[in-house]
């Protein structure tokens, strides 16, 4: 095997000392005190046949310019990496801010729809009840339209079809019964008194919620919650004494609506209906709506009879198109506002939802007074305002948890 020198890879250099004598008699190193770099020098033309196009490698000192260039490139790479990291962080933060803004806008739109559907329901429902005083028929129509909407959403896949057993249906049945009675009593009250007065009485829902929860669930309220009920009761009493459209049938119907709706809430806690993954609140509400229709339809036939047929409406001298259009709009808004309410509840806390419900009641009362030009006295307005302020105070105090007693 040939040596490296014989093969021509390395060219031998003439021997020389590693240090030169300095003028002062010392020795000076040949190589300067700086870094070394690899370089390739062209090989001589006369090479062996196997290495005709090679290069020889030697160690030569690196120049200061090379070192400065290398350091500058390193600094540029570090700065570029830092800039990329900062841009990525800013992009992620911007994406989070954008997502939060979208969610806020969506929630605001849902609250707007909740209030709008409520306003339209109360106005069109009152217009129909004025000329067609058959609350059982009208409530049945509203449940029928809600049933059609629920079936449509299940068939088209807009809402996931729930998987529910017979045992669950039996557990839901009491909820459907009180739901049916609550909506029926509300329509009976709306047919007898002004919309604003019905909703003023319905502001007493917290009172019955506390009362029924204490009786059936053993949930005793705090002293602050009890105190917040005083302006609610006092405000409703003051508004009732000065209400121009007051009558006992409308008053007790609204009170019965409060009792039944709050009984539904207590029953839902008492029975603790076991829900499958596909049985969310909207599906549960849809099932209750369908069951309410089948519960109320035979009662309608046995009591009022069918009063929404074209023959009956024409004999009463009513405009068929107008009655049917207003009834359908009221029924659609009736189902829509309750469904939107559940959608909001899935996004916010119960306390926030309760405050929103209080504001909704104020909006409905004000718009109904303006639309129907309901005469309202100053004392009546004061009573309504005190009652609604009490509801707001109650919703705020409910979120305060009592401190646990020390052992």
Looking at this protein, list some descriptive labels:
407 residues, mainly alpha, two-stranded antiparallel ribbon, two-stranded antiparallel sheet, 13 helices, disordered N terminus
Please provide a written account of the structure:
By secondary structure, the chain is mainly alpha-helical. It has 13 helices and four strands. The chain has helices at residues 4-7, 64-131, 135-156, 166-192, 195-201, 205-217, 223-241, 248-271, 281-302, 310-315, 320-345, 350-372, 378-397, and strands spanning 19-21, 27-29, 36-42, 55-61. The chain has a two-stranded antiparallel ribbon. The longest helix is centred in the first third of the chain and has 68 residues, at 64-131. It starts with a helix and ends in a 10-residue tail after the last helix.
